[in-house]
Amino acid sequence: MKLFDVYPLFNIEIVKGKGCHVWDKEGNEYLDLYGGHAVISVGHSHPTYVKAISEQVSKLGFYSNSVINSLQQTLADKLGKASGYDDYSLFLINSGAEANENALKLASFHNGKKRVLAFKHSFHGRTSAAVRVTDNPRIIAPVNEGLDVTYLPLNDPFAVEAELKKGDVSSVIIEGIQGVGGIQVPTDEFMRDLRTLCTQHGAVLILDEIQSGYGRSGKFFAHQYAGIRPDIITVAKGIANGFPMGAVLISPMFKPVYGMLGTTFGGNHLACAGAIAVLEIMEAEGLIENARKVGDYLIRELLEFPEIKEVRGRGLMIGIEFENSIKEIRSELLFKEKVFTGVAGTNTIRLLPPLCLSMDEAGCFLEKFKKVIRK
Ligand SMILES: Cc1ncc(COP(=O)(O)O)c(C=O)c1O
Questions:
Q1: Which partner for 230 in 44, 124, 205, 366 could form a disulfide, CB atoms 3.0-4.6 Å apart?
Q2: pLDDT tens digits for 294-312?
């Protein structure tokens, strides 16, 4: 059987990782400024994380959501404390798309409305409602077209107000910082306007923190820079450092009903063990503060490069936009300098390293980056 060929692959096989470094099967070492697409939060193969998952699998790998799994409550307690949302409830699933799918559904159950407002250049996943609120017609199949969505420009409160006034909007979904869209940071003022407008017009505010959350921005959630509290927050990626998991944080205004939401694998024992270890490591090692400190340093230094058109981002979620395609720069970084980076569109390099990136590693990246763009 062949693999369904949907991914353009680099001819590299990564077989080992430690901290912010990975190794290919030929033994070449790479600096990882990509984190497997913002997934590696506490670093590759962190001993506390490895121990937690190994010990759990040796006891019990899985049992269903029809019996008590106290690891879920332990995770909820720790996540509530770490994020400042201990009055919210937690629903656990397996991926980011699933988190958004459930968030949109919950909003619609709650207010009985159907239309959703999303933003230009948004990315929210590839399943039915999540892909429909994604601003990319190439990945929306006819079968996904049923949901009524209006895409609005980011940072335009008047456009949002004009739509909300029509009275049929169930929810507004926005990324804490747009990732796939090229690291576009909504203004704090716009976030506050959104909060006010959603409350005024009875629409649910959904914050997709799947890429920008879990400490990446230098705060637990990127929207916390604006001092707002959304009605629903979705997370995934860094939550379990690579073990597949997603979660929905739900405000007390939503009342759960048996059978309203559900999943087979969501919140399983192994994912919970991984996610609990992640929060313990983040706290013990001060990784959110580290993301802010090292991110500030990287952004400050990158702003000094006249070759760069624009540097955007917060913490360790950084977009470096050039006037032209970055294909060659990225390829030289990877194959010559052995540095993994991400991309957004054609002209923007995306940095999404593990949150434990040290100042030395950041400095090392800057040296290699300079060598490539000034060769
Ligand atoms: C902001 C955002 N939302 C949702 C998703 C979808 O997550 P998943 O690929 O886990 O379904 C992603 C993935 O890149 C994302 O960046």
A1: 205
A2: 999 999 999 999 999 999 9
What is the pTM assigned to this prediction?
A: 0.98
Distance in angstroms (rounded) separating the CA atoms of residues 223 and 192: 9
Domain 14-42+285-373 has CATH 3.90.1150.10: yes
Map tokens 């049992």 to a residue: 63
Calpha distance 243→277 (Å, rounded): 11
119 CA distance to ligand 1 centroid (A)?
A: 15
Mean pLDDT of 243-264: 98
> How would CATH label the architecture of 60-284?
3-Layer(aba) Sandwich (3.40)
Q: How many angstroms does the Cα of residue 274 sit away from the middle of ligand 1?
A: 19
Mutate to test the pocket of ligand 1, among 98, 119, 237, 241 (most ligand atoms within 8 A of CB): 237
Ligand 1 centroid–CA 303 distance in Å is 28
- Interval between CA 201 and ligand 1 midpoint (Å): 28
Q: Give the C-alpha separation, 299 to 218, whole Å.
A: 13
What is the rounded average pLDDT for all residues in the chain? Answer: 98
* Distance (Å, whole) CA 298 – CA 218: 13
Ligand 1 pocket residues where CB is under 6 Å: 95-97, 100, 123-125, 175, 179-180, 208, 210-211, 236
Residues 342 and 351: their CA atoms lie apart, in Å, by 6
331 Cα–ligand 1 center, Å: 24
pLDDT in tens, 23-34: 999 999 999 999
CA nearest to 317, candidates 34, 52, 49, 68: 34
Task: Report the atom number in ligand 1 closest to the C-alpha of 95.
Answer: 10
Where do the structural domains in the chain lie, given as residue ranges? 14-42+285-373, 60-284
